[in-house]
Amino acid sequence: MAPGALLSQFLTGLVEQAERYAPNQAVGLGAVAGDLIAVHLSQYVDAPDEALPGGRRQVLLTKVNAFIEEHLGDPDLTPGTIAAAHFISRRHLHQLFDGQHHTPAAWIRQRRLHRCRADLADPLLAGRPIGAIAARWGFRNAQDFSRAFRAAFGVAPREFRIRALIQVPRARTDEDACTGKDVGTDKNARTDNSHALIARALRPVPDESFQ
Predict the structure, then answer these.
(1) With b meaning 16 or more CB within 10 Å and e meaning fewer, what string describes 128-163?
(2) pLDDT in tens, 156-187
(3) 174: exposed, middle or buried (C-beta count within 10 Å: 0-12, 13-18, 19+)?
(4) How far, CA to CA in Å, does 61 sit from each of 39, 100, 105, 107, 124?
(5) Among 73-82, 120-129, 199-208, which stretch is predicted with the lowest mean pLDDT?
(6) Are 61 and 96 within 8 A, CB to CB?
């Protein structure tokens, strides 16, 4: 039986007998339905992009983007590995990104840079070396990361981190609550907290070559 016919028969049965299923059975049947839909759509994924209906094209693009997000930390993530994981050609992958204003490779780099920027601005990660943050999101080379970061955001990673940490207010303590002190507007508390975070961020790190 063709995948489409099997899917149609299965979904028709689900609708006709929906009241008979317990909640836990419905979850399992939903997973089966998802698998059947995936099998049915798989016959289209390596068709020319213009032959794919808009909905199916968007489903595949969404799936590809989710895969990219999940594997950003893998330095071996490339358009080739993405295409292989989805059983499509690299040409088809690039066709999927037509109209997205970026290529698959550019999108990978952009998402990695934004993840790095978020980590650099996170006060909880102030003590983590810049190189470790860059490596966490798939960058292999210090110079490449620094150049890419500066090109994207107009500032070096270290300088961006210092600027971001200066803006971090000190956390409110029990003592502040008792005294009614507003740490958000206390300039001295804010400055002391920023200095502490910056000091952590600037601690010497062996072989720290990211600037």
Answers:
(1) bbbbebbbbbbbeebeebbebbeeebeebbbebbbe
(2) 999 999 999 887 665 444 444 454 554 445 55
(3) exposed
(4) 17, 10, 14, 12, 34
(5) 199-208
(6) yes
pLDDT category at 13 given cuts 50, 70, 90 is confident
As a whole number of angstroms, the distance between CA 207 and CA 4 comes to 57
d(CA 25, CA 29): 6
Tokens representing 83 are 């295409």
How high is the pLDDT of residue 176? 46
The pTM score is 0.61
Instruction: With CA atoms as reference, report the closest residue to 94 among 108, 110, 111, 114.
Output: 108
Residue 198 CB-density burial (10 A; 0-12 exposed, 13-18 middle, 19+ buried): middle
**Paired tokens of 116:** 């790095």
Question: pLDDT for 21-71, tens place per residue?
Answer: 666 556 666 666 665 666 566 555 554 544 444 567 788 888 999 999 999
Residue type, 153: F
Mean pLDDT taken over the chain: 76
Region of 169 (left: φ > 0; alpha: ψ -120 to 50; beta: rest) is beta
Task: Determine the length of the chain.
Answer: 211
